[in-house]
Design brief:
single chain, 170 residues, mainly alpha, Rna Polymerase Sigma Factor, Chain: A, Arc Repressor Mutant, subunit A, 2 domains, 0% strand
C-alpha cells in the first residue's frame, strides 16, 4: 500500500506514524512468525526485531512494505534458528496448550504439529504460499531466492507432508 510507504517514511521522525505502521502490520507479521517458530514468545520477539530492523534499514520500494517486512522477519527467524542450532528441537517447540475440543481447534493443532516437523525452508514456503497466498515471485523476493528454488522447495514440502501424514485424512 502507498499508505504503508508513507507511514514508513514518516515513521523515521514521527513516532505516531511508525506506531500506525506497527498497528497495521504487526498482527500479520505475528501470524507469519508464529507459523515459522510455533512459539508465541519467539514470534513476539521476531516481530519486535523485524520492526527494529525496519527502522534501521532502507526500503528501496522494490516490493510492498509488507513483503519487505516479511523478508526481514524471515531473515530474523533464520538468525534465531542459527543461534539455537545446538539446542535440541524439543526445547524450541512450545508445548501445546490445552486444545479446545472443536474440530477447528483440533485441525489447527494438527497443522501446527505437522508444520513443526518440517524443515524451516519447507515451513516457510508452505506458509507463504498456502496460508499467506503469496505468488511465486513474492515468495522469491521475500526469501531472497530464485523462483525455481521456491517452486522446488514447495514441491518437496508438499511431498514431505504427503509421505509423513499419509492416512491422516480419511
Amino acid at each position: 500500500m502507498d499508505d504503508d510507504v508513507e507511514l514508513l517514511r514518516l515513521g523515521r521522525s514521527d513516532p505516531g506514524a511508525f506506531r500506525a505502521l506497527v498497528e497495521r502490520q504487526s498482527q500479520y507479521l505475528y501470524g507469519v512468525a508464529h507459523a515459522l517458530t510455533n512459539n508465541s514468545a519467539d514470534a513476539e520477539d521476531l516481530v519486535q526485531e523485524t520492526f527494529l530492523a525496519a527502522v534501521k534499514g532502507s526500503f528501496r520500494g522494490e516490493s510492498s512494505v509488507r513483503t519487505w517486512l516479511v523478508r526481514i522477519l524471515v531473515n530474523q527467524a533464520a538468525m534465531l534458528r542459527r543461534t539455537r542450532r545446538r539446542r535440541p528441537v524439543s526445547e524450541l517447540v512450545e508445548a501445546p496448550s490445552r486444545v479446545d475440543s472443536t474440530k477447528a481447534a483440533d485441525a489447527k493443532a494438527d497443522l501446527s504439529a505437522m508444520l513443526a516437523q518440517l524443515s524451516l525452508d519447507h515451513r516457510q514456503v508452505l506458509l507463504l504460499r498456502e496460508l499467506e497466498g503469496m505468488s511465486y515471485e513474492q515468495m522469491a523476493a521475500t526469501l531472497g531466492v530464485p523462483r525455481g528454488t521456491v517452486e522446488s522447495r514447495l514441491y518437496r514440502a508438499r511431498e514431505e507432508l504427503r509421505k509423513k501424514f499419509k492416512g491422516y485424512l480419511p
